[in-house]
Specification:
The structure is a single chain. Helix content is 42%, strand content 14%. It contains 16 helices and 16 strands. It is of the alpha/beta class. The relative contact order is 0.12. Bound molecules: pyridoxal-5'-phosphate (PLP). Pyridoxal-5'-phosphate binds at residues 111, 176-178, 203, 243, 248, 276, 278, 305, 307-308, 312, 317.
Length: 466
């Protein structure tokens, strides 16, 4: 195997060649050009590349190994040592958790999805089929808004499953919902908006994103029927981001009367509702209403993502927007990038087209439903006095706790018992008081692990309640 290395020697310099090689390599490691684990060329190959005798490189490697910069293992060659940066006295670039994280047994925090059950074989078949047939066009640049076939197939899928209305031209493929949101914020900013309404409680990461995009997130309280549209009306904002199908993180659904009032508000203020529909395919048929977008495609931007439905690593999302807004979104995007990976889009298209996506959603839906029952049953026994909000759908549960519960103490006690979980506080923005709560994600823990995690959580609850 040939491993290239950015290194030169100066034959005219007074320093011996082996010292030059040693010093240059050490400098590359210390300034983090070479990272721990990086493979280095064999002594024979580097000597040939530098046109020096092999003993020059052997001596340099030996010296750096003795200093802790390099590691040599039989059969796997020489690599930059995993201790290299510590040896160099430098701090790590990776931010450390302020409290040491115990060897986690139960991670019940939101933000992840069930990637363990990723349909690897079906996906590989789709990728292989795409690669076997990809011609010049497929391997070249695709339209920035997305591969036309993907937009066509996805438009059909979203119409069928979520009632989304619109033409393939009104659908854009984005690098996850995150990019879609950033694009919309940029367009709103360009149109004079300074604020964007967000649900409270809601997603703290999204709020940060909105702030970085230059808009002020304005929290609109959520109750058991979803967003308080009456308070939205009084807020003065002209655009709002909502999760109407399954509110994040409470899991409540926006009541029909509020859906209608929200649309009426958007029409009245000439504004936009951004519908984040990131996990609606996990809702049970009885709980699933058609998308809000289907009620008013001229005022609702529909946004979806493969992050929960498949895996966040795909960075695949989509936006369906009113035509005039889509034109502005495309204009902004033209200055950002040249679209997402066409090959990934085509693999996804095939996955959707051959029924794999529907199948996977159905399987996840029933698995999550099973986990939800475990949460419901254990919450009753392990966290007495708690109230599970929302419908029996989705991939997390919002548990309101009795008013006297010390939420922060409970989260800390849970952590000591190897349960990572977040309190309701983590998701809130405004001053509106809410009962203490825990948000428990069952995206990663299977039913058995979840039950055990909840038992441990119950002990933490007893400890902090007594
Ligand atoms: C509320 C919400 N919206 C959207 C997403 C999906 O974001 P993305 O597609 O950028 O991964 C997530 C993922 O965690 C989420 O929690």
């Amino acid at each position: 195997m040939t491993w290239h290395l950015v290194l030169t020697v100066d034959r005219k310099a007074p320093l011996p060649l082996t010292v030059q090689v040693r010093n240059s390599l050490r400098a590359l490691i210390e300034d983090r050009t070479l990272w721990p684990g990086t493979r280095l060329p064999s002594t024979r190959q580097l000597a040939a590349d530098l046109e020096v005798s092999r003993s020059v490189v052997v001596d340099a490697y030996e010296q750096l190994s003795a200093e802790g910069y390099l590691e040599t293992r039989p059969g796997s060659g020489t690599t930059v040592s995993s201790r290299a940066h510590a040896e160099a006295g430098a701090s790590t670039l990776v931010a450390r958790d302020p409290e040491p994280v115990p060897e986690t047994m139960w991670d019940l925090r939101t933000g992840t999805s069930n990637v363990v059950d990723f349909p690897r074989q079906e996906w590989v078949r789709c990728v292989a089929a795409v690669m076997n047939s990809a011609g010049r066009q497929e391997l070249g640049y695709s339209a920035p808004a997305g591969v036309p076939l993907t937009r066509r197939v996805l438009t059909g899928y979203l119409g069928r499953v979520r009632g989304v209305r619109g033409r393939p031209e009104d659908l854009m493929i984005t690098a996850g919902f995150a990019q879609g949101l950033a694009l919309i914020c940029a367009v709103l900013l360009g149109r004079g908006h300074t604020e964007l309404g967000v649900e409270d409680p809601g997603h703290p990461g999204e709020r940060e994103f909105i702030t970085s995009a230059g808009l002020r997130p304005v929290g609109i309280p959520v109750d058991d029927d979803g967003l308080r549209v009456d308070l939205l009306e009084r807020s003065g904002v002209r655009a709002v981001l909502v999760t109407p199908g399954n509110q994040f993180p409470t899991g409540v659904r926006l009541a029909q009367a509020r859906r209608e009032r929200l649309i009426a508000w958007a029409r009245e203020v000439g504004g936009y509702v951004i519908e984040d529909d990131f996990d609606s395919t996990f809702l049970h048929r009885a709980d699933r209403l058609p998308s809000l977008q289907s009620m008013a495609p001229d005022h609702v931007v529909y946004a979806g993502s493969a992050s929960k439905a498949l895996a966040p690593a795909l960075r695949l999302g989509w936006l369906a927007a009113p035509s005039e807004l889509m034109a502005s979104i495309e204009g902004v995007r033209a200055g950002w990038d040249i679209g997402c990976s066409g090959l990934e889009q085509l693999a996804f298209t095939r996955f959707v087209d051959t029924g794999g996506f529907d199948r996977h959603q159905r399987a996840l839906r029933s698995e999550f439903h099973r986990r939800r029952q475990v949460l419901r049953q254990h919450a009753e026994t392990c966290l007495p006095g708690s109230r599970l909000l929302g419908r029996d759908s989705g991939l997390q549960g919002y548990l309101e706790l009795p008013a006297h519960t010390d939420e922060h103490a409970l989260v800390r006690a849970a952590r000591r018992r190897h349960v990572l979980v977040r309190g309701g506080h983590f998701y809130t923005l405004g001053p509106t008081p809410r009962p203490p709560a825990l948000v428990i994600s069952y995206a990663t823990a299977n039913a058995t692990a979840l039950a055990r995690g909840l038992l441990a959580l119950g002990h933490a609850y007893q400890e902090t309640s007594g």
